[in-house]
Amino acid sequence: MGGKLTLTQLRHKANDLREDVIQMLEAAGSGHSAGALGLADIFAALYFNIMNFNPQDPNWADRDVFFLSNGHTVPIQYAAMAEAGYFDKAELITLRKLGSRLQGHPERVKLPGLENTSGPLGSGLSQAAGYAYALQYLDNQKHRFAYVMMGDGELDEGNIWEAAMFAGKYKLSQLIAFIDRNNIQIDGSTEDVMPLEDLKGKWESFGWHVLEIDGHNIESIIAAVDTAKAITNRPTVIIAHTIPGKGVDFMEYDYKWHGVPPNSEQAKEALQKLRTLDGKITAGEWA
Amino acid sequence: MSDYILNPNVLNDDVAQEPIRAGFGRGLKAAGEANSQIVALCADLTESTQVSVFRDAFPERFIQTGIAEQNLVAVASGLAQAGKIPFASSYAAFNPGRNWEQIKATVALNDQPVKIVGGHAGIGVGPDGATHQMLEDIAIMRVLPNMIVVVPGDSLEAEKATRAIAENGKPSYIRLARVKTPIVSTLESPFEVGKAYVLREGYDVSLMGTGVMTYQLLVAAKILAERGINAEVVHVPTIKPLDNDTILASAHRTGRVVTAEEAQVAGGFGGAVAELLSEKLPTPLLRIGMKDRYGESGEPAQLFEHFGLTGPQIADQVEQYVRSTPQYHRQY
Fold first, then answer.
1. Which chain A residues are Cβ-neighbours of B61 within 8 angstroms?
2. What are the chain B neighbours of A123 within 8 Å (beta carbons)?
3. Does the active-site annotation cover B188?
4. What is the extent of the structural domain holding A106?
5. The domain B17-182 belongs to what CATH superfamily?
6. What is the ipTM metric for this complex?
7. How many domains does chain A have?
C-alpha cells in the first residue's frame, strides 16, 4: 500500500518524479521526454494517493490495477513505481539498457507491478476493459478499480474506439480512463495531424461519463477520480489537459521533445529548474 | 511401431464425417465444466465458430465483442491478467489475420494464456473466396515466441486439443476447418500438444500432414501401396512446438519427406519441416499446399481438386517424386 500523501507532499513527489525522468532519459540517451514530464502530477496522485497496492506483494489480490496504454511514457511509471517502493531507485538509470527490467516500452513479464505490455498504441484501453469486465461481471469485486492512461495522439487508433464501444456497452463503471490531452504527437499538433475534437462529445456518444480537468492540479485529479468512482452506471474518462514537458520550460509546449531525451547540458539545466522550483536546493549549487 | 489407434473405417467410403469446429464446440464446453476460470469471447460469429455451445451452457462467462477483432484479443489479454483463461474466437482471416499485432504484444510477448481460435481456416471455407480463405495463419502464428500452434486433424482431435490448450497456461492458437472432415482418430487415440503420431508405417517415403490433410495422405498411402510404394504417414497436429524427434526419426527411416497442408507452404507447416530437416537431417522434401497464390470461390471439394490436394492427386505427385528422387540416408 503506497500510503496517502497530502497535497503539498504530492506536489513535491511530482517534482521528484520529474527529476527521476530527466536523469533516466539522460542516462538512456533515448526516449520520450515531453509526455512523461507532463504526466508527473497524475502519476504522483495515482501512486501516492488514489490507488491501493502493495509493492511488497505486486499481485496482491485486493489491489487496484493500472494499465499504461501509451507505453512510450513509461519512464514516469517506472519513476512512480520506484518512489513507491517496487524496486530500488538506483535501478531507474538502467532504463533502455541491455539486460534491464525497465524496457523502453513496458513489459509485464519483466517487471513485477506492471499489469500489461504495451507500446504499439491503441490496445491498453482494451486490456484495462477486460480486467474491469472481470471485476464487475465475473469476480464481483466492487471495491477495486482498473485505471488506464491513454495519450491523445493514440486516439487515432481504431482499436481505442472498439474498446470505447465495448466499455460503453457493458457499462464498465470500475474502469477509469485518463486521456493525456497535451495536443502533441510525433508529426505535430493533434489537431493538424488528425483532429480529435469534439473529444468530449465523442466519448459521451460512446456511453462514457466525461470529466475535463487541469492535469497539473493534483486536487482536481483526486476529485475527478472520486467522481468517477461515484458514477456506477458508466465508465468514466478524465480528459486531463496537460502541458507537454511540464516543469522544464525549454521543453514545454514543444512537440519536438516528444521522442527525444535531454543531453547532459540540457539535463543539468532541467534538473536545476526542477530543483529550484520548490526551493529544495539553491541555484548556486548548480551554477 | 505405430500403436496409434486409427478409425478402422477411415478408408471406407462410408467413413463418418464431422466439421472440425463441432469438436471444438464440445471441447470448449467440457473445458468450461472442468474449470470455472474459462471464459469465451466472440466477434459476432458465435454460431459458426461453435462458441454458441459454450455460450448456451455458461451465458455468464460468454462475452460478445462485436465485429472488433483487435479489441477481442486485447480484452482477452486483460481478462487473462485478471486470472481468466479466455478463448477469443472469430474466423482465422480476421483472428489472427486482422489483429496479429495485438496478439504479439498483448498476448504472446505478454505471455498471457489467451487462446486464439481461428475458425473457417484454409481453402475449405469454399465459396466465400480468397478474402476469407486464411492460408497464412500457420506462418504468422508459428513465428511468435511463446505461442503454441495446434491444427487438429478431425473433430475428435479438435475436442482433445481444445481441452489440452485450455489447461496449458500458454498463449495458444488453434486452427479450425469449416468443412465436414472424415474422422481419422478414435476417442481412445492419443493427443498431446507437441506430439506427432505415426499413423502408418512405411519405408519408401514419409507423408507428413497437418489438419485435414492427414486424411488425404492416408488415402494417398493406400493408393501408393497398390503401386508398390510403401509410404509412412505421420500426423502432425502441433506445428509449434514441432515434434522434432518423431519427424526426424521418420525422415531417417524413409529418406524422403512430403508435407501437406491447406495453407501457404512458405512459412507454413512445410516451411517448419524444411527448417528442421535442413538443419538436422538434410532430406529431400516435397511440400504440398498453397504455393504463393490465393484461393478462389468454389465448393470445398472442387477447390481441393483444383489445387491438387486430394488423396489421389497427392498419390500421383508422390509417386513421381519417389521415382525421381533417391532416398537419402545419413546418421544423425
1. 138
2. 70, 74, 77, 102, 105-106
3. no
4. 7-286
5. Thiamin diphosphate (ThDP)-binding fold, Pyr/PP domains (3.40.50.970)
6. 0.95
7. 1
